[in-house]
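Write out this protein's structure.
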Amino acid sequence: MRQFLIALDQVLNTCCVWLPGGCWADETMSSRAHRIQDTHPLPRKVFNAMFFWQPDHCKQSYENERNRSQLPPEMRS
């Protein structure tokens, strides 16, 4: 179920081409929010509030993307 939700999030992010930060098919909305926080801080605040039980959810999502955590172990760098 977790992988399905991540995939859904990535599709939603890709569909939101009008939002700042560009749309990358393998990035979640939260990761994008962290990446654009210096110029557009509101999305990060919203997503962090939505996932209040995770400290700094957007930063964790961004780090997971950088570490390729969503990929099978043999495909991670």
